[in-house]
Amino acid sequence: MKFTSTTLIAQGALAAAAATSGDFTILSMNVAGLPAILNPNGVPGGKEASAKTIGSKFAQYGYDVIHMQEDFNYHATSTQPTLTPSRTPTSGGVPLGSGLNTLSNLPWLPGSFQRQKWNKSSCASEFDCLTPKGFTFMRVALSGAAADGSTDGKGNEVYVDFYKLHTDAGTEKGDLEARNDNLRQVKEKRLTDTWIELHRDGVLPSDGGVCGHPAENATCEIVDKVLYRSSPLVKLEPTGFEYAGLKFLSDDGNVLSDYNPVLVNLTWSAGDRLRQSEFWGGATYGSWFNDVSILDSTPEPIKARKITFRGESRLDSVALTISYSSGQGTTELVHGGRGGSEVSLTLADGEFWTKSELCQSEKSDKTRNFYIKATTSKGRTLEAGTRTSEYKVFEAEEGWQVVGFLGEIGDEVDLLGFIYGKI
């Protein structure tokens, strides 16, 4: 199977006190935005006119998230009519841009959007090495956040990570090697193909058939895919899949792009064992960590036994010792550097970490966490670092406690969120 433009959804995360279910739509569309002199695509009416009509269709349908590929030289034309509050800044036309952009009615975590070039590309055919093709990443809030990504301070957010790909094209040996390397770069295994699940009952086809353009139905297979993966925090389930080419036609009935768009609807539901707070601090420059996989494999009941922080001018590290299976084992979760002074608090039986406060500020032009305070169900506290005027308070829902962390770290704690488990 040859992949070209692909949308991946992974690692959904539910914030405490958020709604426990919902749904959202995704459109993945190659908008054929290469200059006509390089690739006319066989689309009648001209590239500029097609881009304008595509933009008007985006505005008309109002899908929650629209991922575009080959969005090169007609970006302003195709996005101008839309009213989506969140959109990625273009990285430019050919040869500077990757052609990957997103329009969204859902905000993403401030600072989470990233562009990544493929480690390997090929010019065996299709001229893939002439543009910085690769993938983008963003952490989208499905509920509880304003258009600018800000929140009400109560942790009412549901996150899903989006990876949007445009792999190396062509069928020569060099193209195939590059494309396989592209998929390895984003760890394509353990992801479920929505087309295979909904239209093939989970059975891989020996021959996917040939699709018309626009495709009349989704019984055939195309190179554009929407893949997904759930997590212990949020379950994702596709409930609708179609090739949306018939929705993107000009007034005279001609296609607007040389690719069939893919339209998917997914529902989400909260994890019943682990949940997550929102984030505080800065993103994209630290190393990502997440205690969810450890906690998910830990037998219940899980209980925080000892809280440890390091900090002075800023927050250097956070740590938590948890016990499980009624005290039969313990695990230490430690994240950050070795700077600052260490403080710790051992929790009694029947005492739980239920409230947190984080303060952030700027250091070397980067946002970091400067201070943390933990408050237990018995009113005892532990704090480290230096308070600032930018703070956020996190409270676990009744019946839940802090049992782990996730975020980004270096020598200090850059971005931090809390993982909650049931008491």
UniProtKB/TrEMBL annotation:
Q: List keywords of the entry alphabetically.
A: Endonuclease, Hydrolase, Nuclease
Q: Which GO terms describe its molecular function?
A: endonuclease activity; sphingomyelin phosphodiesterase activity
Instruction: Show the InterPro entries listed in the entry.
Output: Endo/exonu/phosph_ase_sf, Jacalin-like_lectin_dom, Jacalin-like_lectin_dom_sf, Sph/SMPD2-like
Annotated ranges, domain Jacalin-type lectin: 274-422
Q: What's the superkingdom here? A: Eukaryota
Q: Name one Pfam family in it.
A: Jacalin
Q: Which GO terms describe its cellular component?
A: cytoplasm
Recorded hits in PANTHER family, A to Z, give: SPHINGOMYELINASE DDB_G0288017, SPHINGOMYELINASE FAMILY MEMBER
Q: What is this protein called?
A: Endonuclease/exonuclease/phosphatase
Question: What lineage, starting at the top, does this entry show?
Answer: Eukaryota, Fungi, Dikarya, Ascomycota, Pezizomycotina
